[in-house]
C-alpha cells in the first residue's frame, strides 16, 4: 500500500478510521458492514481462516481476495483456504473470480521470465 500512498497519508487515514489495516486474526467475532475489504496473500490462509473471513462479510460490503496459488507457504498445499474456496464457491451466484497470468506481471520484465522458467520446470 505504501507504494501507492505516502506513509503519512496512510497514518492520517488510520487515525480518522477511513481505513483499518488488521491481521486476519482480528476478524473473528466482527461483522464488516458497508465497507470495502481486501484480504491479501490469501493463498496462505487455512480453510478455517478463509471460512471465518468470508462469513464476516456483512450488508453493503464488497470483498476482494488476492492470492498466488504458486506461492503457498503452508506445509500441505491442499490446506490452502484460497484453493478450497475456489473449489467449493466456483458456482455460487454473486461471486466472481479473475485469474491473472504471466502476461499480467507488471513488477519487472525479468519476473515474467522467472515465472515461465518455474512453470516449465513444474510441467516436466
Q: How would you describe what is shown here?
A:
It is a single chain. By secondary structure, the protein is mainly alpha-helical. Helices cover 33% and strands 6% of the residues. The chain is built from four helices and two strands. It has a two-stranded parallel ribbon.
How much β-strand is present in the residues? 5-15%
- pLDDT < 50 stretches: none
**How helix-rich are the residues, as a percent range?**
25-40%
Q: Which class do the helix and strand fractions yield?
A: mainly alpha
Taking all Cα atoms into account, the compactness measure Rg is 17 Å
Adjacency order of strands in the biggest sheet: 1-2
Task: Summarize the helix and strand pattern as letters.
Answer: HEHEHH
Biggest sheet record? 2 strands, parallel
Shape, per Cα inertia axes:
globular
According to DSSP, the number of beta strands is 2
Calculate the mean pLDDT score and round it.
91
The rounded distance between the terminal residues' Cα atoms is 37 Å
State the helix count: 4
List keywords for this structure.
124 residues; two-stranded parallel ribbon; mainly alpha
What's a concise summary of this model?
With 124 residues, the protein is mostly helical. It is built from four helices and two strands; from the N terminus they run H-E-H-E-H-H.
Question: Strands, helices and their partners?
Answer:
Layout: H1 7-15, E1 36-39, H2 47-54, E2 62-65, H3 81-89, H4 109-123
Parallel strand pairs: 1-2
Helix pairs in contact: 2-3
Amino acid at each position: 500500500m505504501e507504494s501507492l500512498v505516502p506513509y503519512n497519508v496512510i497514518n492520517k487515514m488510520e487515525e480518522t478510521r477511513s481505513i483499518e489495516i488488521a491481521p486476519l486474526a482480528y476478524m473473528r467475532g466482527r461483522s464488516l458492514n458497508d465497507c470495502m475489504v481486501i484480504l491479501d496473500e490469501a493463498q496462505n490462509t487455512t480453510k478455517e481462516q478463509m471460512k471465518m473471513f468470508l462469513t464476516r462479510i456483512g450488508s453493503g460490503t464488497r470483498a476482494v481476495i488476492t492470492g498466488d496459488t504458486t506461492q503457498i507457504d503452508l506445509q500441505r498445499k491442499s490446506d490452502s483456504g484460497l484453493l478450497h474456496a475456489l473449489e467449493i464457491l466456483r458456482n455460487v451466484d454473486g461471486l466472481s473470480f479473475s485469474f491473472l497470468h504471466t502476461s499480467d506481471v507488471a513488477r519487472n520484465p525479468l519476473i515474467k521470465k522467472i515465472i515461465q522458467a518455474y512453470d516449465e520446470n513444474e510441467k516436466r
